[in-house]
Amino acid sequence: xxxxxxxxxxxxxxxxxxxxxxxxxxxxxxxxxxxxxxxxxxxxxxxxxxxxxxxxxxxxxxxxxxxxxxxxxxxxxxxxxxxxxxxxxxxxxxxxxxxxxxxxxxxxx
Amino acid sequence: xxxxxxxxxxxxxxxxxxxxxxxxxxxxxxxxxxxxxxxxxxxxxxxxxxxxxxxxxxxxxxxxxxxxxxxxxxxxxxxxxxxxxxxxxxxxxxxxxxxxxxxxxxxxxxxx
Lengths: 109, 112
Known about the structure:
By secondary structure, chain A is mainly β. Helix content of chain A is 0%, strand content 43%. In chain A, a hairpin with a 6-residue loop joins β3 (33-37) and β4 (44-47). Chain B is globular and about 40 Å long. The A-B interface holds A 1, 33, 35, 37, 42-45, 48, 54, 84, 86, 88, 95-103 and B 33, 35, 37, 44-47, 50, 57, 59-62, 95, 99-100, 102-105.
C-alpha cells in the first residue's frame, strides 16, 4: 500500500524557520495537503494543493513540492504553532484513496 | 456556519456493529466528496473511506474493506459509516471530513 513518510519530530526556537518534509512516490503527480492538530482538537487544514493557504491561516505557513517530496515551512515559528502536523495525499492508481503521513511533532521552545 | 457534526459513537463488543452519522450544514453538501478519517488513541490520522458526490464511487482503506460501508443521503445532508464485525483495533475517534472542514469526532470503543 502507498505510504507517505514524515520525520517523527522537529524542534525549533521561537522565531526560527521550521521545515517539515513528506516523501511519497506519487507526489510528483498528486497534490499534498497539510493539517495541523493541537492536543485534543480536530485537525485544521493549513496548506492545500501543495502550496495554497486557506483563508485565516497565517502567512508564515507555506508549502512547496518538488519531485517526491513536499515541504511545509513555518517562517518565524511561534509557540502557538507547537502541534502535530500531518501530510495527506492520494496514490497514483487513479482511485482517490487517501493516505496520511505518520505525523510530525513540532516543538517550539 | 459551515460545520460537520458526528454522532453514533460508543462502546461496542468485538464482532458488533455501529452506525456513525455526520450532519452537514452551511454548505452545499451534495457538491463534495466526503470522507471518514479515524485516529486511534495516541496515534496518527488514518484515512478510512470516501464517497463521491452522488454516491456512485466509494473507496476504503484495506483494513476495513468488507466490514465498513460508507453512504450518504444528500436530501438529508448526511454522511454515514456502517461498521460491522468490529475489532479492538477499530477503537478510535472517527471524524467526518470535507478537506478543509472537519467535525469534532465521535469516539468508538471496541471492547468486551
